[in-house]
Amino acid sequence: MNLVVGFKVVPDETLIRVSGGKLDLNVATKISTYDKNAIEEAVRIKEATGGKITGVTVGNTDRKVIREALSMGVDEVVAVSAQYTDVLGTATAVTEEVRSLNPDLVLFGETTTDGSTSGLGPMVAELWGVPVVTFVRSLKVEGKTVRAERSLTPVIEVVETELPAVITVTGEINTPRIPTLRQIMESSKKPVRSKEFRGTPVASLDSVEPYTVQRKRVVMEGKLEEVVPKLIEALRKEGVI
């Protein structure tokens, strides 16, 4: 099976700090969390059916992070460098690669840990002209058909579609593997094709500012039966309940 998996290189959100009223994004980068689930699922499908996995990443093309994707089992990566681009621009760049690769199945994470739009997978499917199944927590490939369970809290929806198709996966679908030392070393031998994308964003990013909440600093002391009514009254005054 010919597989494509999209992944994004993002700042490690656990290292981002607020400094001088602004977000300090000059931190180490990583593969966006749910994109690692997409990579893991692609590797499992390849292990079951054979074939090849091509990774496509747009934007930051940090080689150290790309090597992590290769060490997990991706066979090659197309690294598309681009200045700031919105989701539609990213989808356009990814779709150009998808069309040239003509895969059976394209996988993405349900969202990225920076933009969190959940829009990339559906946009690529629309531009490519194939079905899309989003928020998939379980996936089974049988010949030219995929059967998927969609996590739509509080219900689970089971759907089937024909290949080729685009799938976005949730964190429930698997636990991403930790590459062995040998896989990490062998990843340096796998090909990375560099490209450049130039597009005009439909939406522009003016600024990124931290969202801060001023604490009320209200302390209630006493026995539980005394504090609970006070807490309820305080929450009512704030309009919480």
UniProtKB/TrEMBL annotation:
It comes from the Archaea. GO terms for molecular function: electron transfer activity. SUPFAM superfamilies: Adenine nucleotide alpha hydrolases-like. InterPro entries: ETF_a/b_N (IPR014730), ETF_b (IPR012255), ETF_beta_N (IPR033948), Rossmann-like_a/b/a_fold (IPR014729). It holds the Pfam family ETF. Residues 20-201 form the Electron transfer flavoprotein alpha/beta-subunit N-terminal domain. This is Electron transfer flavoprotein subunit alpha. It comes from Sulfodiicoccus acidiphilus.
